TrEMBL record:
The lineage of its organism: Eukaryota, Viridiplantae, Streptophyta, Embryophyta, Tracheophyta. It is a multi-pass membrane protein. Its main location: endoplasmic reticulum. This is Reticulon-like protein. Residues 20-31 have a biased composition (Polar residues). Keywords: Endoplasmic reticulum, Membrane, Transmembrane, Transmembrane helix. One of its GO terms (cellular component) is endoplasmic reticulum membrane. The keyword Endoplasmic reticulum applies.
Amino acid sequence: MSTSTDQSPDSQTMSTSTPAHQSSLDSPPISTSNNIGKDILLWKKKKVNASILAIATATWVLLDIYQYNFLNIASWITMAIVVVLFLGGNIMRLVGRQAPTVPDWEMSEQSALVAGNTLRELLEEGLRWMLNVGAQSEWFEFAKVVGALWLFAWISSKLDFLTLSYIGVVGSLTVPVIYVKYEDKIKGCRTRIRVQAKRWCDIVEEKLKRMKNKNSKLGVDNKEKKT
């Protein structure tokens, strides 16, 4: 008896489609951390935004205005959490329910690699930006960056670190929403400011060139008089 080795078209298509389907299952899931960050910045998760703003405001008021010690506040908060968990666990045992357990928090190797690569990319971008601004950018870009850094240094010298951090948190929760809502107006205003600043820079540069040419002419005339 002879056995046929030919395969039907359906079996061939199934055999060819199986690796692709398996590879799609084996592929790692897409990370949603960027989407969560965008949702928080754009106030799409209002409860999370309100919680962050409330915690930041309470921390700033207690530490900066009322001058409480951080370790003192941390001790009181920890003590309150322990008391609430103790009472809740005893009540649940009296009722006959199971007390809450601590969840297992594990960090996979892939998450650690993603975090390390993200930090490395941020450092590389920062170094590349400083190199572009310092060695390869135009005079206007250099002046703009130096002016912004000087303004930030002046503001930080007038405020303490806690107040500056609180302003940063509030700004990160309000500036993106305002920018998205009034993007066209902000871009138009930024373009007008950029054109005006560039015009002033060109005027200053032209005056410096005239002064340089005038000084060079005076030097030539002095040399001719001496000769």
